[in-house]
Amino acid sequence: MVDIKNLDAPISTKTIERNQFDAPTNNIYEAISVVAKRAAQINSEIKKELIEKLDEFATHNDSLEEIFENKEQIEVSKFYEKLPKPHAIAVQEWLEDKIYYRNTKEEA
């Protein structure tokens, strides 16, 4: 689970030295694959959490006559918009050795 309140991933794009990025695997493609899978996991966790929080504000009436502007809902949305992107979080976790991975081909 991602602790979104204590993220130190950059919000903007940051250049990373290739040798530092692929050092754990000695294969740039394998490193990118691991980080991409982790980014997809992070994205689904954040999306699930956001949907749960926004469901608290949902009104379940079938009438389209009035739509109220909910300030709390807007604040929640703005908070999630300001978070670093999932790929940036995954790269930061990778560089800090927080991602567990294994190569199943080497084990066989």
UniProtKB/TrEMBL annotation:
Catalytic activity reported: RNA(n) + a ribonucleoside 5'-triphosphate = RNA(n+1) + diphosphate
GO molecular function: DNA binding; DNA-directed RNA polymerase activity
Key words of the record: DNA-directed RNA polymerase, Transcription
EC code(s) of this entry: 2.7.7.6
UniProt entry tagged with the keyword Transcription: yes
Gene Ontology annotations for the cellular component aspect, listed alphabetically: DNA-directed RNA polymerase complex
One GO term (biological process): DNA-templated transcription
Enzyme class: transferase
Pfam hit, one: RNA_pol_Rpb6
Superkingdom of origin: Bacteria
Protein family: Belongs to the RNA polymerase subunit omega family.
Name of the protein in question: DNA-directed RNA polymerase subunit omega
